[in-house]
Design brief:
The structure holds 2 protein chains of 2 kinds. Chain A is mainly alpha-helical. Helix content of chain A is 70%, strand content 0%. In chain A, α1 packs antiparallel against α2. By secondary structure, chain B is mostly helical. Chain B has a single domain (29-211), classed as Cytochrome c oxidase, subunit III, four-helix bundle (Four Helix Bundle (Hemerythrin (Met), subunit A), Up-down Bundle), CATH 1.20.120. In chain B, a hairpin with a 5-residue loop joins β1 (3-4) and β2 (10-11). The chains are: A mainly alpha, B mainly alpha. At the A-B interface, α1, α2, α3 and α4 of A face α1, α2 and α5 of B.
């Protein structure tokens, strides 16, 4: 990535992203108090969090402007490993359903 | 006809494809790639702990929802705003560093550190409140015993990352103003700081919002 000290990067895109992040956070807090089923709430909150994470990674961490091979090396591996962890959840449901009453 | 590669080594055309070695395939300096790889590994660590928390929560019949809007959810939302603002200040610091504006860089890094310290102060105060109410690693007055363990482990590890980040930024700020460190070093420290913010983006809804006292 070019590190030219002569070029002035504009501030505005960053400030816009920051504004979105604050707004999405407020949205999440408001959402938490709506009468929704826990699973629905979880999916909505996680979707918003993933959007926030995407904004931070792409713009603040600059990954959007790096060479694509960097993003392709890092992100799929991370998503794959996290997905593999989900295999334990059927067992947690079993523990809940078969708990001694 | 030999030309220089990104590392400044003279190479023939046959040697210049990026996978021949001696060049940087991702077009980043090694320390930046190193930080990205560390960030991915740390993200996996936090993910494992979050999945463990989710597992225990799904398996438990009586998970506490003790966080009232005042003070807990409000406090956590303010902490989130502080961390997000510290991310914009570190972005400004990296921008200033690339323009070689040394005093501006130091000021923006100081603002970032202040955000981190404020976050830690609010967090410790919250911890003291919860401990005062009887929440421990092994029990709490409200429900499933694992609430305390998952809460303190996740937020504690995150808080440790924030604290280490503040110290890291302090060293970078000092070194950059002494012309010992470069704009790249500032950028790499910025990447770490954004990662710490990123983790909180998930901890805030999963730990606080999903345990908000809504009734």
């Amino acid at each position: 990535m070019a590190n030219d000290t002569g070029h002035v990067e504009p501030k505005k895109p960053f400030l816009i992203v920051w504004g979105f992040l604050l707004a999405l956070t407020a949205l999440e807090t408001i959402l938490a108090y709506q009468p929704l089923a826990l699973k629905v709430m979880l999916v909505l909150l996680m979707t918003i969090s993933l959007v926030k994470a995407g904004l931070i990674i792409s713009y603040f961490m600059h990954l959007r402007y790096e060479r694509h091979s960097l993003a392709w090396t890092l992100m799929p591996a991370l998503i794959f490993v996290i997905s593999m962890m989900f295999v334990v959840f059927p067992d947690s449901v079993r523990l809940y359903l078969m708990r001694p009453k | 006809m030999a030309t220089e590669d990104t590392m400044g080594t003279l190479r023939t055309p046959a040697q210049q494809d990026v996978w021949s070695g001696g060049v940087s395939p991702y077009a980043v300096v090694p320390k930046k790639l190193g930080m990205w790889l560390f960030i991915v590994s740390d993200a996996i660590t936090f993910s494992a702990l979050i999945v463990a928390y989710a597992f225990v929560r799904v398996a438990s019949p009586e998970w506490p929802r003790p966080f009232a809007f005042v003070p807990s959810i409000l406090n956590a939302t303010v902490m989130t705003f502080i961390l997000l603002s510290s991310s914009i200040t570190v972005v400004m610091a990296v921008r200033a560093a690339k323009m070689d504006a040394r005093s501006a860089t130091a000021k923006w890094l100081a603002a970032t550190m202040l955000g981190g310290i404020l976050f830690d102060v609010l967090h410790i105060h919250e911890w003291q409140g919860l401990i005062g109410e009887g929440v421990r690693l092994s029990k709490n007055p409200w429900g499933a015993p694992m609430f305390g363990a998952s809460f303190f482990t996740l937020t504690g590890l995150h808080m440790t990352h924030v604290t280490v980040g503040v110290l890291y930024l302090a060293v970078i700020a000092w070194g950059f103003s002494k012309r010992k460190y470069t704009a790249e070093d500032v950028e790499v420290s910025g990447l770490y700081w954004h990662f710490v913010d990123l983790v909180w983006m998930f901890l805030f809804p999963l730990i606080y919002l999903l345990s908000a006292k809504t009734a």
